[in-house]
TrEMBL record, chains A, B:
Domain Pyridine nucleotide-disulphide oxidoreductase dimerisation, first and last residues per copy: 341-443
Biological source species: Streptomyces antioxidans
UniProt key word Flavoprotein: yes
Domain of life from the UniProt record: Bacteria
Domain FAD/NAD(P)-binding: start-end pairs: 7-307
Cofactor(s) demanded: FAD
Gene Ontology terms, MF aspect: oxidoreductase activity
Name by which UniProt lists this protein: Flavoprotein oxidoreductase
Length: 464, 464
């Protein structure tokens, strides 16, 4: 005698949703658990983070960017319905209304669930302004976006490209377009590119981008996408000026896609992302789970939630949800806000809090900046880097680290990320036993040099 | 009215000794503290770790390898006496006997001290066997060794070179000689190269070295350096065979140079290194300090002392000693046994305990090995790497990590080094917020993949 199978319904077929489905499937047989996943688009389990490299010609796509196709998932016992959009969540009835986007398909139908996983992702921010929907204006959020952009790039030579927004996706797309031979201008509303860094570190990025031939215009408030007689984009206008453009990329970041969840009454945080508990259950609900770009996560340093859309988090969330739905136990304790990015040979990384973020949650701190090299100074290709470190006053606890440099700079941020997770003081960090050999590091690793200066500064501040 | 200056005497003018001197000098004026440093050789503050790269032609030497010359130190108020060897420590009399090695110099003289810093370093192991002192047999411990080796290499073409010992210095020298166009054979007594790795990981190194054109002969017990009629090295003989050689490098590691200290009755550990307290005072003595390659350090994972001759530790020891002698306060909490090395494009790293080391101190553990790539699989130059991880049974605490791979593999060991320092479990490590972007890492960093497998294995073991 077997009990009827429970049903797990997943909304969204990308990293978080399909990781959850795959993990649950490994733990529970088909007889125990039916898994049904709805995806609006044609693809599942793909790397949106790879799109800039596809556009830049470093990666073939979209096939290479798809980790698992719908067919693969189906072969493993997950009923994936692509081109199918969930349009309503009925919590009281424990069911979702799914619409087949194929006009000749099934139309709308209700599906009951025992466990529901919301993995609806994020949507790119699109400012409401004239011309924003004109041909030649591209987002880079989905593989379909990537394909449309490539068609645009291949249809006619793009002499001038304008990227709106100098965050991660903006600078990565600037690199991609430079590699395709375009002249690139990046328009940024703020005072510096990379608002994920402190302004002094953002300035280093700006200088380096300039050296790479990328113009960055800051304080640029875009007012209009100017179109030509053919209706295509011709330029981007700001309050102050106009920048000719054959192509425009929107790199303004993304917001959690939680309209559906909010209509159902599920709780969201300050950034519009769903709020979950340690097990990735939506707060207050036993059998509703959420993960990926549609949730807010606990920042272990600030103690607040934030919205950090990153594939690496989405995959972890999915694993945790799948383990729990599958009858195991796992938690996602939170993040420390690590991010790393590159523009050509420039590497940019951060973890923990920026100065403004630390101040906003009430920390008093010392901030120090040092210059060092990636390898022993005498070793070939020792490249310079700048490391900035924030440490709390009194306790000396590490609060954040930012790095801007060349090859060998970016992933050094991981040392600070682990130290933050462990609540380490900068004094303790000065004695960390990091890997040393001339091809890998100076005898004092740059992170240790920063920790030494931070520790000395905290001590000096106590004496006053 | 000023008190008479105290005197700090330093034995050994390399990393630990001169870091201690420099740090103390920054904290105390000449009127407060006189600093006298004795160095047997001609150089101070140099990077012995850079010698393989000098020999390989990547680095100019020896000037580039000297961080601070005796003149620089003197200009900063440190009285450096080069070519001067301390031949006796008189603890009761608080004085040392120094001998001027210049036959026309001052001869022997006693110098009193208030604080004594022992930084006598390590000496290369030289097996007592026929021919070991023949021309063409070279150690690579000092800059003079490096110079002699280069002269030998430049005097006549070296078609065949034999390296005795396949530890760090042995494999680095193998790389250097390959780069100079020699055929290189490495003779290793043990079953695998890199006894600092578990045998299964050492095998990967051996295979990779073979691919680089370096022959590694294991189980090779060297019995004799065979010389020709000219007295120069002609071959190296083992119990089983004979290997033709125009040049022989001794890469058998080093032992703490503590004869002087032991004659004075100072305490040494199992490896012959001086034993110190947290502040780097020699145990049981208030004003005798020791640091660098002549001390044993506390291994924070095993709870025992070990001898780890590495410039990065020597510099930290010197900083700690100099701070304390200078009236400040600092400690060296210990090491986790991190080391990283490369042979051509092969990167080799470890931290924490090997299987045999963990077992020897009574740990029960699970060991797992995974394969992963340095970047997202679809990104160009994603290079494979193997990560092995040891976790304690029951607690799941990380005990050690070993990595063998190509570009981007080695420094990933730092994540495990910090996690070990923090006493993290592999379960907690699975959620670490490490930097992710396709050029830097797959969506699951290789260290996280290993941690996931280790955590699952520890859980599974508990169920039995």
């Amino acid at each position: 005698m077997t009990a009827a199978a429970r049903r797990m319904v997943v909304i969204g077929g990308d990293a978080a949703g399909m990781s959850a489905a795959s993990r649950a499937r490994r733990l529970k047989s088909r007889g125990e658990l039916e898994i049904l996943a709805f995806e609006r688009g044609p693809f599942t389990s793909y790397s949106a983070c790879g799109i800039p490299y596809w556009v830049g010609g470093l990666v073939n796509g979209p096939d290479e960017l798809v980790a698992r196709t719908p067919e693969t998932h189906r072969g493993r016992g997950i009923d994936v319905r692509t081109h199918t959009e969930v349009v309503e969540i009925d919590l009281a009835g424990q069911r979702v209304l799914a619409r087949d986007l194929d006009p000749h398909g099934e139309g709308e139908r209700w599906y009951g669930f025992d466990d529901l996983v919301i993995a609806t992702g994020a949507r790119p921010r699109r400012p409401g302004m004239p011309g924003i929907d004109a041909p030649g204006v591209h987002g880079v959020q989905t593989l379909d976006d990537g394909r449309a952009l490539l068609e645009s790039l291949e249809a006619a030579p793009v002499e001038r490209a304008v990227v709106i927004g100098a965050g991660y996706i903006g600078v990565e797309m600037a690199e991609a377009l430079i590699q395709r031979g375009s002249r690139v201008t990046v328009l940024e509303r703020g005072d510096q590119p990379m608002s994920t860094l402190d302004p002094d570190m953002g300035r280093l990025v700006r200088d380096a981008m300039s050296g790479l031939g990328i113009d960055t215009v800051t304080g640029a408030e875009v007012t209009e996408v100017v179109t030509g007689e053919d209706g295509r984009v011709r330029a981007v206008a700001t309050k102050m000026s106009e920048y000719p453009a054959d192509l425009v990329i929107l790199g303004l970041g993304v917001a959690p896609e939680t309209g559906l969840a909010q209509q159902a009454g599920l709780p969201v945080g300050d950034y519009g992302g769903l709020l979950t508990d340690q097990a990735m259950r939506v707060r207050g609900y036993d059998n509703i789970w959420a993960g990926g770009d549609c949730v807010e996560v606990l920042d272990l340093v600030s103690g607040r939630t934030r919205h950090i859309p990153l594939g690496t988090h989405a995959n972890k969330h999915g694993q945790v949800i799948g383990s729990n739905v599958g009858g195991g136990y796992a938690t996602f304790p939170g993040v420390v806000g690590t991010a790393v990015s590159k523009v050509c040979d420039l590497e940019i990384a951060r973890t923990g809090l920026l100065e403004a973020e630390a101040a906003a949650v009430g920390f008093q701190f010392e901030a120090v900046t040092i210059e060092a090299t990636s390898r022993a100074g005498y070793y070939p290709e020792a490249r310079p880097m700048t490391v900035k470190m924030l440490a709390e006053r009194r306790t000396g606890r590490l609060l954040g680290t930012q790095i801007v440099g060349r090859e060998g700079a970016g992933k050094r941020v991981d040392v600070a990320a682990v130290a933050l997770t462990a609540g380490m003081t900068v004094e303790r960090m000065t004695a960390l036993d990091l890997g040393y050999a001339p091809p890998f590091s100076p005898v004092w690793d740059p992170v240790l040099v920063a920790a030494r200066k931070a520790a000395a500064t905290v001590r000096a501040a106590e004496r006053h």
